[in-house]
Amino acid sequence: MRISNIAKSIVGGLAAGATAAVTAVQDGVLTTGEGVTIALAVLGAWGIVYAVPNRQKTNV
Predict the structure, then answer these.
(1) pLDDT per residue over 20-58, tens digit each?
(2) How many other CB atoms are found less than 10 A from the CB of residue 9?
(3) Residue 54 neighbours by CB distance under 10 Å
(4) How far apart are the first and last CA of the chain?
(5) CB atoms within 10 A of CB 14
(6) In whole angstroms, what is the distance from residue 17 CA to residue 2 CA?
(7) How far apart are CA 8 and CA 38, in angstroms?
(8) How far apart are CA 4 and CA 55, in angstroms?
(9) Which residues, 6+ apart, have CB-to-CB distance to 11 below 8 Å?
């Protein structure tokens, strides 16, 4: 199954954002700094995952 780079990026960004959000709201308050951290996690994951190519299928 071939997954597009965009689909991988979206899933990676959602996973990174959700992880950062869960950590940020542990104390019940979301500060501006925590919001920025969540946004940067999502954007960073989108860029990194999009840039990494899919592994080529090998014929064994």
Answers:
(1) 999 999 999 999 999 999 999 999 998 888 888 777 777
(2) 19
(3) 10
(4) 17
(5) 13
(6) 24
(7) 18
(8) 12
(9) 49
